[in-house]
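Document type: protein sequence-to-structure record

Subject area: structural biology

Format: plain text, a pair of labelled lines:
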Amino acid sequence: MHTLAQLRSGELKGATRLTLRENLTSFPEEIFDLADTLEILDLSNNRLSSLPNDINRLKKLKIAFFSNNRFTSLPSFKGCEHLYMVGFKSNQIETFDEEVLPESISWLILTDNRLVNLPRSIGNLCKLQKCALAGNQLESLPDEMASCRNLELLRLSANNLHEIPSWLWNLPKLSWLAFSGNPCSPKAQFELQEIAYESLEVKEKLGSGASGDIYKAYSNADEQSVALKLFKGAITSDGYAHDEMNATMSTGEHPNLIKVLSKVAGDERLGLVLEYIPDVYRNLGLPPDFETCTRDTFTEETSFSIETVYAVAKAIASAAAHLHARGLMHGDLYAHNILINDDDHCYLGDFGAASFYEPCEKAFEKIEVRAFGCLIEDMLSLCPAKEGAIYTMLEELREKCMNEAVEERPLFSEMGL
């Protein structure tokens, strides 16, 4: 975190990154003094509503964040030829004009705004990989987006879409898709018993995510330790909390899915009681970063035996087949959403991006199959032994799952693991 005083004094000369949180109502002109070096600009959590017309003077700018401000229209960044990541989450943006973004953009965040439509020129963003549009008022997507053939992750939840355009199913690299909370998303829910919040002895917090907090608790009704997830109720990059809750309740039982025991009654927040997973389980991977964009990251020392890769692939393919048989797309099938122990048993969790669809529409499953292929590819890249029958089989399966001809990919139930 930096200060305006530091910026104005010249103390930040030569900086490559600048973060200011000072209730700014106007863009500080002194930022242009960093034009020769500045690569990452974060002016989130201020009160800005406009940017200078000559923002392209920041000729080295790569990443720009303006979340939680007061923009009503998306500013123009034309001429910022190195800019690849733009974030305007939680503004009041209603207008997204034609040709305001450079073709270098690969990561666009417009979550929680007021957009009703998108410009046709979004189809010119040929490098676009990640696009977050949840929590707007979109009624349709422009057909020109079919030209975004590098698009891998798309968040459309909590909008007003009456259909998912068929061209979406043919995007060769689309792998992570979320569209719950739209008129076109079927509403499916399985009844679940309720448990009184007062019957739970809530203990330490186990973790927090975009949609809520998870606590360890003791259930007097079940006479066992459980995990309690309390939802925040806000719109996240994946959609509404109540849609995540609904999807989680609908997963059914499977040895590689965390069992849902009950929903919570008597608390102001939405809540679920889940099977408690002991701390011998750890995350298989870490979320993507600025450089990987859509692909998971791993600690430097991470390596996987071919046996572990096979065990994970078999378990996750089985869990995914189970979900898709119920017309439920996970939407976020990633290593960082998988828990694993030393015996290679794993759980697929986090249904924040899950969406219901009609099971007959197999195209949705084949989109997720590519995400599974990415998972195998990431794990195989960290497997020292790149030979043998199992390695060859998994590499061939990865290739089939990542086939850019979407219709030729196998379904999860056809993988034969």
Remarks:
- The chain has a mean pLDDT of 94.
- The chain is about 15% helix and 20% strand.
- The longest helix spans residues 306-325.
